[in-house]
Amino acid sequence: MIKIILPLFVVLLFSSLTHVNAQKVWTLEECISYAFENNITVKRQALNAAYQQNELQQSKMNRLPDLNAQTSYGHSYGYTWVQQEAENIDVNNRSFGMGIGTSVDVFNGFSARNTVRRNKIDLMASLASNEVVKNDIALRITSQYLQILFDKELLAVAKEQYEVTNQQVERALKLVAAGSEARGSYLEIKSQAAKEALTVTQQENNLALSILDLAQLLDLENVDGFDVVSPVMPR
């Protein structure tokens, strides 16, 4: 059985999509891609990397000279007494001003340069952490995906064994009825069939839990009908 499970990972990424009862089943590649886009931890780390990128960009811009420009405009009007004319005349005054200024740090103890260096290091650390988080989630998804495939194999084996034992129960019952076999042998094989029926139920529960664990790892809102592709092994 182990020989069957181990080569599965080789063909997981190349498995085609299938549908069961109109429900979409997921390949390993789809599970990992979905997690990279929707997992809360991955999204949080990506936001942190974006923040560090902005901090680095801002620290670089802070080293550039400041340029300020301003304009002003004034308008006044009224009357004034002109002695020579012996009368009041209208007076309108308009004014316009414009100014441009710039400033640059000549020396600040290398503070700006050190800030840029620190922000570069912070960005590199954030990007590295982002890769670590993505690798971790990919490994966890792969492990859980393989666990589902393993549980499916165990369930298939358990069902097959139970079917064989049931056939033996029917055969033993006929032999007891014909007087060719003791009833004790029939009861013994029947007890074995009951144990194997319990094993089938346990394996079904294990598979259901494995599928649920993967769905929760992907942060799926709806897990109804969720299942994964079982690759077809090359012959």
From TrEMBL:
The keyword Transmembrane applies. One of its GO terms (cellular component) is efflux pump complex. The keyword Transmembrane applies. GO terms for molecular function: efflux transmembrane transporter activity; porin activity. Keywords: Cell outer membrane, Membrane, Signal, Transmembrane, Transmembrane beta strand, Transport. It is found in: Cell outer membrane. Residues 1-22 form the signal peptide. Belongs to the outer membrane factor (OMF) (TC 1.B.17) family. This is Type I secretion outer membrane protein. It comes from Saccharicrinis fermentans DSM 9555 = JCM 21142. The lineage of its organism: Bacteria, Pseudomonadati, Bacteroidota, Bacteroidia, Marinilabiliales.
